[in-house]
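---------- Forwarded message ----------

FYI, see the Lysosome-associated membrane glycoprotein 1 record below. Original note from H. follows.
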Amino acid sequence: MAQVGSIQSWSLGVMLHLVLAAILHQGFATVAPPTAAPHKDPSAPEQGKYNLTTSNGTTCLLAYMGLQLNITFNSVSQNKTVQDIVNIQPNVTKSTGSCESDVASLHLTTDAGKTNLTFVFTLNTTTSKYHLSEVSLSAAWPDMKDPLSANNRSLDYLRGTLGYSYKCRKEQTLTVAQNFSINTFQVQVQPFGVSGTTFATAEQCQLDEDDMLIPIVVGAALAGLVIIVLLAYLIGRKRSHAGYQTI
């Protein structure tokens, strides 16, 4: 039965290696942008539903997402540089924009025009891939010493395929500039190839896929362990019976 014990020890080692590999994979995968967003105050923002339609009433862009702004500015009241975290409130936010064959923009205005946020999506017609390529912000809050303006036209976030929507349940941070980033929550967008008023089949983001990886690997390892132990038991039992001779 010593061989049975060695087989069981080997199977436990295999399972531990699989679980460790999954954990390491998840750790390395979240290093690249966009990154998982830390939990901060205020609480997670409400998911807004921002749809664009053409002049003939056809929906051309769908965007459901909770947005949280991280802004660094010079505070009048505190007389120093501070960081403020503000949720975009969908019920007081106006959405406008435009849709073209390879560029789509979504413009959000809130706080009676004191905050203007624009997302620009670009489609590569050769590869049929789209991504969030530009984000700009202008804000003029009462406590700001000077109005804030930030823009980045070389982004590569929220990547998807034409004919599919992009979806990410997990919170993530989109860094735009040194003094401005966006935390996104429960995002699903489709800036091109919209048919009707519902999203096409979703492509899951890497962060969501990584969250699902460990349970799958652990489950597979446990199932494999059960099979190996059962086989080891049957082999050991068969050899035990073979050791007895009929008189």
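H. also flagged this: Confidence is low (pLDDT under 50) at residues 23-32.
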